[in-house]
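Bug: token stream looks shifted between consecutive jobs. Job 1:
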Amino acid sequence: MKKIFVAVVLCLALVLSAVPSAVFATKSGLEFTATVNPEKLAPSSDDQTVTVTINADKTMQLDAVGAFIYFKSGEYSFPVQSVSNTDISGFGFDDPSEALPDCYCVYWTNDFSTVDYYETSNLMVITLTVPGGTPAGTYTLKVAGDAEGKGIYLSNNYGTTLEDEAVVTFDIVIEAPEVPQATIPTAAENLTYTGENQTGVPAGEGYTITGNTATNAGDYTAVATLEEGYVWEDGSTDPKEIPWSIAKAVIDSPAAATGLEYTGEEQTGVEAGEGYTVTGNTATDAGDYTAKATADANHTFAEGDSVDVPWSIAKAVIEAPKAVEGLEYTGEEQTGVPEGEGYTIEGNTATEAGDYTATLTADKNHTFAEGDTVTVDWKIAPASEHDDEEEKASVGATGSIAPEDLGEGAQVSYEVEENDGVIEFNEETGEYTALKEGTATVHVFYSNSANYGRGDYVVTITITNAAPTGDMTARWIMVGAAALVVMGVYLFISKRKEQE
């Protein structure tokens, strides 16, 4: 009888799609299932073993079995340790061939002509290795007819060939035990400096936290570290760094003081306050100033971290002095408008009678109600009368009694009242020449005098042979001259005697 080789080509391929194990029907009416033991594995750093039993629901008469087993797909491989069958023996293994990489070939070697059938209910038991360190997940393996995934081909020793298309799959499940998860903390928002300690990142279950509280405004980083036995909700375990911040408190800009006026003392135009410092806010002199307010590290102004605040000290208003009244010509310089504090003055003194105008200029710290400069009119009235005068001279002297204090434009006339040949007098000019000892009197008449108006006075002229009493310089000159004369005479006589 012709032996019909029944080939069952089984290929194991790892895929990461989630295809569940189930019952797989064939055209021949067989239904295959795959049973995995154990059903689930826990993650391990050590290698683990899994057995997979391929079963059929019926018994068929077969005379040969063979298979190709693939154990690797992509990143993960599950090496085949062994393939066995409870009803038949004779399976052997080859290393992966060049034609079928990553494959162990299971083949039929014995002559089973004496065997009429075997039970397909324990068709094949495959033992696989799950390498240590394989991550948790569900790994689906596929048992197919060949590398292209065709169905299983069956034939029996009665010459019947059954062409089947069933593809068997099963799952290797690695499932990590449940680990409690900690929620990753988030930073508080809109924190603003209050002067109190604030929490930027809250504490929570499953972790400890540091660097999450502060008082001052600024940027901070909190560090959350898992407690033992916890993982983060994203599956990670490293400490989490959470940035957070406290914003500066916004404060009002300071206002300038109003109504400041020069006092001579230092004054403050912009007051310092909480949360900021101020420079350029004090002065003494009148003027316009600009203070600079600078917020500290925990505060800011709506305009920024610093603001300029204009302020000023107004000039003090002073009264202009009044003119001195009742001034009358005296021949001496007189003051018509007094000096005072806060201003300088020009044109406030004079000697001659007349009308004058003084100009007052306020200094930088003062002003008058009328402005920084005012004028004040004042005057010196003519004297009510001119005093009589005395004139002294020696014989042979000349002089003049023409008045010099009447002011410009005055008209003068003279009348000699008593003379007796003592002087020779010119009534046009007021000049005289002393002729002899004695006394002469001259009446002086004036009009249109700025300093005296209209009036008259008497000048008494006394003539002597000697220098006037009281003129010590002239007397000493005369004494010196006489001494020189005497000395000269003495020397002349002495010289004559020597010659004789």
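Job 2, same session, no restart:
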Amino acid sequence: MGSLFGDRSRRAAPPKAVDDSADMAVDVSVDAAVDVSGAIRRLVASQAGFKVSELVEATGLTRQGLHRHIQRAVEAGSIRRVGEGRGTRYEAAGTEARTTPPILDLPVPEKAMAATPDAERSAARRPDRGSPDGERFERSDALDGLPEDVLPAALALWIRQRNPETTFELIEVVEYAVAQLVGNAADHSGSESVQTRAWFTGDRLHVEVGDTGIGALERLRSELHLHDYFHAVQELAKGKATTQPASRDGEGLFFVPRLAARFQLNANGLTWIVNNELDDQTVMADPGGPGTRICLALDLRTCRRLETVVAGFKRGGAIQKTRCSVRLFEHGAEFFTRGQAERLTANLERFAVVELDFKSVEAVGQAFVDAIFRDWAATHPGTELRPINMPSSVEFMVHRGLSSPNPT
């Protein structure tokens, strides 16, 4: 059976505030009318550090314009950098170091969720359980010794009794997904039991599998030595993330998010949503409880066929292809650094074909493009990179980078 992090698979104390009178060594010459130093001082004093996007909002200046001022403050010892990539924050230099992996205070990315109906947004934190109690499937099972086919079969029987017109294809998807997710909980969560629920709302079937273990993202973060929980989501989104490479291929959470109209994972203070109807995904902060909760929304009219989805990514019995949403690797919609490129391309050599989806990405820099399409591609000839959904500005930079001569 496949698992979450080999085919199956928690929070940080806020840093201390600093004295508002602290001397921040920041150049204010960007714009005579903008007090960058004061803006940084206020952000550090009023909250647990700041992200570059927050400083952009506070000053009205660009990321590029602020970069050298932040760097000078870091070099002067006034502030320090914590985290990397989308998790980067700047705190007062005197702040105690974190002793637990950061969760990241992630807002709902407006661009990612802009097209999402209000009902979908509210469901991000609390999935709709609209059916009357008497029409819901709900049970809790001890994981120790639980046969892998018991829950899938019981749920399939309930679905047929509740809605005799349910298609074979939907039943097959449900049985596969529940078997994978329950197996994940048994193998990796450390939980004593698993809770399974299902309910109908209109033309949708909702299926939820949850446990009270250590959390799927913590399992992956600790086993693969990742920086934070957001990094764990990124690896899950790529696919084939496994803590048992000798016996597992990371199939569980590769296919399950692709089978539902909407997939949602809640664990360790984060929510990861994959909306296949909008062809989009996002991550947000979630103050939910312990363990892992995964909820699938399946459209009764247009359910995806398991065989078709698997065939699109598997060759010779192994996963050979993946698709990465580039925007999932940064808070904003701009990608300029080699560090961002390295986070994106990490472990992509596991695949023969990688589609890099640039949907909603507004700008890329030459360093980012070169790091991916020149440097990484040259050292990984066994992986084909296919950029897709590129806006004109991104397409221009990518083609320019590929056509220009190599630097000497």
